[in-house]
Amino acid sequence: MLRFEGVSFRYPEDTQGMMEDLSFEVADGELVAIIGASGCGKSTIFRLINGLEKPDQGKILVDQKSIETIKNYSAFMPQKDLLFPWRSIEKNVCLPMELAKVPARDQEKKATQVLEQVGLADYAQKFPKDLSGGMKQRVAFARTLLSGADMLLLDEPFSALDYLTRVEMQEWLLRQWEHYHKTILFITHDVEEAIFLAKYIYIIQDSRPFTEMERIQVPLDYPRKREDLKRAEIVELKESLIGKLRRSVSL
Length: 251
Ligand SMILES: Nc1ncnc2c1ncn2[C@@H]1O[C@H](COP(=O)(O)OP(=O)(O)OP(=O)(O)O)[C@@H](O)[C@H]1O
Ligand SMILES: [Mg+2]
Hints:
Elements: E1 2-9, E2 19-26, E3 31-36, H1 42-49, E4 57-62, E5 65-66, E6 74-77, H2 89-99, H3 104-117, H4 133-145, E7 151-155, H5 163-180, E8 183-187, H6 191-197, E9 200-204, E10 213-217, H7 232-250
Parallel strand pairs: 3-8, 3-9, 6-7, 7-8
Antiparallel strand pairs: 1-2, 1-4, 4-5, 9-10
Helix pairs in contact: 2-3, 2-4
The protein binds adenosine-5'-triphosphate and magnesium ion.
């Protein structure tokens, strides 16, 4: 579904390149996590995928087509929730449909459906200030879904939440993924979160520019349970990932 072919990129202000000759692939319907030290370029990968930045070299393909020739292939959920405080929850959720000029009646119907699906049907007429952090993230996720794109780019969606809420949201996200069959790329700082959610974990080394991402398969089937995290091989995997991240930080 998604393919980077020899992508190089440097921010104009930077003397060093961010990535060079980077190639990787994500298959249709997969849930993958991207981890790496702060500032290593995780969000930049998303900016390249959704076309906010253009590669200096190389190609980004979705379903074998250059992203320059296609539209609405990905939906981005940013690092912090970006609900508009002056819009009701329903109106926040409708925003991508408004931009796509979907007729008002259809907007309302779809918003009601998706708010039901994320467990917030009773909150349609409330405002962001009336919701907890986890609820706001669910609204932002609902809005991302309604863009209609098959690939969701989630940039540390749960990092601002308290531990228990985050754990609940992880389980919730897996259920949504199983329900909607979307391809999900998920950035996180949290190794355990990456293991619990992802089929593959991509690690960005903290060298500049980076030229590859190591890909590690998580040896767990879906549906997953939190108890799985206690298995010996998973505990070992977690320690090994933390070790890799630390090494990359100290370089
Ligand atoms: N628009 C920009 N212009 C110039 N430099 C930028 C821009 N956006 C990010 N950078 C720089 O590029 C580097 C990588 O940024 P990026 O946001 O991709 O990192 P990240 O891995 O997502 O970090 P974090 O974990 O802190 O979110 C950082 O050093 C940052 O300062
Ligand atoms: Mg980031």
